[in-house]
Amino acid sequence: MIIDPRHLEQLAVIVEAGTLQQAADKIGTSQPALSRMISTLESRIGMPVFERSSRPLRPTAIGLELSRQGRAIRTARLRAAEAVDFGVKGFFGVLKIGAPPFLCKGLVTGAVADFLRQRPDIRIDLIPDYHAGLMERIYLNQLDVVVGPTKFVDKGNSDLLLEPLFSDPNVIVGRAGHPLLTGGGLSVADLAGVTWVGHSDRSILLSDMEDALKLLGVSRPRVAFQTESAGAVLEILKKTDCLTVLPRYVLKADGSDGLAVANLELPGAPQMINAITLAQRTETKLTSDFKAHLKDRLAARHSG
User: Which of 26, 130, 213, 264 shows a CA-CA span of 20 to 30 A to 174?
Assistant: First the structure.
């Protein structure tokens, strides 16, 4: 037997109101219309839903049970409408963000934490990966937005939208108090004698470091440690005399991370970091709000 759920919702209102007129006023219909609905429902189920000649209206056992179902239907409908409304406004749903490991650790995670505090009903999936993997994921619609450098992105690619966030130079980094970082500038001889921490073969940072050192006259740097883990790179730097090349944004301005920057400007232009999305994909309010939030956070960081 199929019962019109609208009839059950109306029945619930009648039971709560106690009279047809009050229920009609609450629903925005007429008393005769509700009377016809009751007759239709009773014909459908073959039983009365109200006791006859009782004032106020008193539901029968089946009428009371059906009114409970009507309340459940009304609650589900209102919650569904609320979920849709929250989704349209960007306060509900899942946001998938991709970024290189050091951006995840240095900037994006902090922005995500603030965003989640403001919108506790959303879920964010943050996927650390390198350029090739991130581009593959976004073309497969596995990511809503990529936050990362666009060094190898064709600026004429009409498939992608690039929104500049900030530019940042690469620097030579080591532990605070490192003997080569506390004095004057580094020489080529200093750099040639250094033991280096490398980066993943899939990372743009690896080629950036090799290119910069080669331009400085160090063609074969000795690499003692190489990993895909951003956290492992930072730990090795803090606990050894190894150096590496990192974007400046990785470092904390107050030095509380235990790292220091060499007094040497590396050759090469600063990296431009962009928010990257698919041009043909309709952007959700959640995605656009997160990008705006990230831009505000970065603006506050750079102005501070």
Answer: 130
Tell me the DSSP string of 20-65: HHHHHHHHTS-HHHHHHHHHHHHHHHTS-SB-TT-SS--B-HHHHH
**What pLDDT does 93 receive?**
83
pLDDT at site 98: 96
Distance CA 140, CA 136 (A): 6
- Segment among 86-100, 186-200, 227-241 with least mean pLDDT: 86-100
| Average pLDDT taken over every residue of the chain | 89
226 membership: H or E segment, kind and range: strand 222-227
**CA 96 and chain centroid, separation:** 5
Taking the C-alpha atoms of residue 37 and residue 11, their distance in angstroms, rounded to an integer, is 9
What CA–CA distance (Å, rounded) separates 191 from 264? 11
For residues 212 and 217, give the distance between their C-alpha atoms in angstroms, rounded to a whole number: 9
Give the tokens for residue 25.
């006023």
Q: Please choose, from the candidates 102, 257, 248, 238, the residue with its C-alpha nearest in 3D space to the C-alpha of residue 175.
A: 238
CATH number of the 170-261 domain:
3.40.190.290
Residues in the chain: 304
Instruction: Say which CATH superfamily domain 93-167+271-303 falls into.
Output: Periplasmic binding protein-like II (3.40.190.10)
The per-residue pLDDT for 65 is 92
Range 115-121 average pLDDT: 91
Q: Which residue has the tokens 């790292």?
A: 259
Is 93-167+271-303 in the same CATH topology as 5-88? no
pLDDT at 301: 76
Q: Could you tell me the residue ranges of all domains in the chain?
A: 5-88, 93-167+271-303, 170-261
Q: Does residue 290 surpass a pLDDT of 80?
A: yes
DSSP state letters, 135-203 = HHHHHTT--SEEEEE-TTS-TT-TTEEEEEEEEE-EEEEEETT-TTTSSSPPPHHHHHT-EEEEE-TT-
Band of pLDDT at residue 186, cut at 50, 70 and 90: confident
